[in-house]
Amino acid sequence: MASVGRRSAVTADQGAAASDCSVEAAAMRLVSVTKTYGSGEASVTALNDVSFTVPRGSFTAVMGPSGSGKSTLLHCLAGLDRPTSGQVFLGDTELSSLKEAALTSVRRERIGYVFQAYNLISSLTVEQNITLVPRLAGKAVDQGWLREVLEHVGMSRYADRRPNQLSGGQQQRVAIARALVTRPDAVLADEPTGALDTRSGQEVLRLFRHIVDGTGQTVLMVTHDPVAASYADSAVFLADGQLAGQLARPTPEQVADRMTHLGNR
Predict the structure, then answer these.
(1) How many CA atoms lie within 13 A of 50 on its CB side?
(2) Residue at 18 is within a domain
(3) How far is it, in rounded angstroms, from Cα 88 to Cα 187?
(4) What is the pLDDT of residue 1?
(5) Is residue 236 situated within a structural domain?
(6) pLDDT value at position 262?
(7) What is the CATH number of the domain that holds 83?
(8) Could you tell me which residues are beta bridge partners of residue 115?
(9) Which of 28, 78, 80, 203 is the most exposed place for a label (fewest CB within 10 A)?
(10) Which residues constitute the domain of residue 52?
(11) Would you say residue 13 lies in a domain?
């Protein structure tokens, strides 16, 4: 797949802590979010008063050292974890106040999640894996959109194959298609290239870039790789559970330099 041009949706300067984006144009927002695990002297604050906005139709990378709060931030945005204080919004829906049944419905229908380890079911075909979530929810699968998604991820020829007949990069493409098939408000990706070789990883990153530019999909990706972050419109940095800056239109060199300074905090 040919590389495509980058959108210019994010214009924050290098020291910005949050996207300059109206509430109406926001796909996701964190508002003064703190997340603490445990209590008393044994408590650990994973996020500390974090606020930032992800614009609709943008590709955002989240980076930081181990223990910086990246996974907790992703889990709060995905509705997998509730903040100790503050608010999490998906569009105009406040996730942090929803009851469990409503939150489960939002996660299933409005959030696409891509895991590092693909999480495909080996006994199912590519098409069955992609359509598993709506079928489990008793929803009809839009066959036209399914064909379009398969085309977007370059897997139309492989719809009847099983995961063990695919390369790692192809399996991750299937996982991305599964995240897209419900037409989610946002796709969240947790180290999506971590288990891939360099070539396959770049193909997946170009695919995310193509999806954002070609369909207006919102993608937020946690990564440790400066090259991966350079495919995004914006790289947001965390350190010690707090925002530590943001780069618009990042280059690998800029990201690596910022990460080096974060490691010295």
Answers:
(1) 33
(2) no
(3) 15
(4) 36
(5) yes
(6) 82
(7) 3.40.50.300
(8) none
(9) 80
(10) 23-263
(11) no
Please state the φ and ψ torsions of residue 61, each to the nearest 5 degrees.
-105, 135
Q: In the sheet where 111-114 sits, what is the strand order?
A: 111-114, 186-190, 219-222, 59-63, 234-239, 242-248
Angle at 57 between CA 81 and CA 50, to 5 degrees: 35
Q: CA 160, CA 158: separation in Å to the nearest integer?
A: 6
- In terms of phi and psi (left: phi > 0; alpha: psi -120 to 50; beta: otherwise), the region of 216 is left
Cα distance between residue 156 and residue 11, in whole Å? 36
Our count of domains for the chain comes to: 1
- For the record, the structure tokens of 187 come out as 């796709």
Q: Are 30 and 88 within 8 A, CB to CB?
A: yes
Residue 162 lies in a domain: yes
Q: In this structure, what are the phi and psi dihedrals at residue 22, rounded to the nearest 5 degrees? A: -65, 155
The Cα 75–Cα 244 span in angstroms is 19
Residue labelled with tokens 């064909």: 147
Q: Taking Cα atoms as reference points, which of 167, 187, 184 lies closest to residue 176?
A: 187
> What was the pLDDT predicted at 129?
97
What does the pLDDT profile of the chain (265 residues) look like in tens digits? Answer: 333 344 433 333 333 434 455 666 899 999 999 999 998 888 999 999 999 999 999 999 999 998 999 999 999 999 999 999 999 999 999 998 899 999 999 999 999 999 989 999 999 999 999 999 999 888 889 999 999 999 999 999 999 999 999 999 999 999 999 999 999 999 999 999 999 999 999 999 999 999 999 999 999 999 999 999 999 999 999 999 999 999 999 999 999 999 998 855 5
Residue with tokens 């943008």: 58
* 93-94 and 85-90 strand pairing: antiparallel
pLDDT for the residue numbered 201: 94
